[in-house]
Each structure stands twice: as structure tokens, then as C-alpha cells.
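In practice, a research group might receive sequence data for several interacting partners and want a quick structural hypothesis before committing to experiments. The following worked case mirrors that situation: the sequences arrive first, and a predicted assembly follows.
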Amino acid sequence: GQNIDQPTEMTATEGAIVQINCTYQTSGFNGLFWYQQHAGEAPTFLSYNVLDGLEEKGRFSSFLSRSKGYSYLLLKELQMKDSASYLCALNTGGFKTIFGAGTRLFVKA
Amino acid sequence: DTAVSQTPKYLVTQMGNDKSIKCEQNLGHDTMYWYKQDSKKFLKIMFSYNNKELIINETVPNRFSPKSPDKAHLNLHINSLELGDSAVYFCASSPGLSNQPQHFGDGTRLSIL
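A structural hypothesis for the assembly, expressed as C-alpha cells:
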């Protein structure tokens, strides 16, 4: 089976940096996704990590450690529009992606 | 130009009714999915089709029946609706295997009275 843990909520200040952690246990691992979901909207793809290390994409970076079953999403220069839920999701192989419950990020002025 | 479109966006109906949700994607993807997102925002896979063939069928009551007439369409029919079916249902598509990101529709908000 699979298990994904993320903090339920986080609050950060505009202009700051925030790190959203995700830990997982799984019998099969092919990669890890991060998605963003604004309230009342569809999830949208942010990043996909297959190998260990940090991948940077503009203000957003994602890190993976397969041996520790750990990933984080780093958001820099926070903006109000970054207030959303961030979903960690496992690619367990085949056609299946397992989503975590998500972390709701509140960005305050 | 909408990549993944679902209809209707809102669905309010009474317990015991039967309803359908339609989904279409114009991305040329081979794989389509139905997810249920409950009030706690947990996104749970229900079904997945690859080239019109059912490949994932999670533990879902058999009141839920997906149908894929072609690889661009995946519809969801629900019989005998129950209060616990109230949720947001998302359709998604991806090029193929699960190492590809999924593109989601805007969701159908189902409320059972």
C-alpha cells in the first residue's frame, strides 16, 4: 500500500520563502508529482521528480530523496496568488497516481 | 480551446436519482481518469481508461459506471444517488503512463439533497 503525509495547513508572509514537506511510504515508486489547486478550481501540474536532488523552475523548486521517502516544494518570493492547496502525488507505476491530502497555504500581506 | 471539459459544472439532485457527468478532452491523450474530491479535499482515484479500456477500477460502489465511447470521452453514470456521493468529481487526462502529468477538468460539484 501507499501512505502520503503532508501538513494540513501553513501560513507564510508575502515575499517570504516557504517549504512544504511530503513524506511517503510505498511499495512501488516511479516518481513524485506536485500539483497546485486554488480553491474551487482544478489541480494544475507544478513539477515531477524521478531522481534525487533539487529541480528548480522559476520561483518554485522541488526536492526528492528516495532513500528517505521525502520530498519538499519550495516557494520563493511568495505572492498572494500562491495561496492554494499543494498536493504531493506518487507515481506508483502503470497508470496509477496516488494523491496526498494536500497542504493549504495561506499567504498573508 | 478548453483542454479537458466536463459538464455539468454544478449538479443538484435528490437522493435516489440517477445522473451522468460527461467529460471530453481535446489533447489527443490516451488515458482518462475520474477522481472524487470530498469535503476534506482528498483527491481519490475512481477509474482510469487507456484507449477506451478500463485499467483502474478502485473500490467504488457498482452504482458508479464509467463509459468510454472513444479515447477522447469518458462519462460517469451514477445510479441511486446517496448523500455520501456529494463531492466534487474531476475528470483528467494524460498522454499515457503515470509518469506523465495529468490535465484536469474544472470539476463537477454534485450536491445530494
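Before designing any experiment, note the following. The longest strand of chain A covers residues 18-26. The mean pLDDT of chain A is 95.
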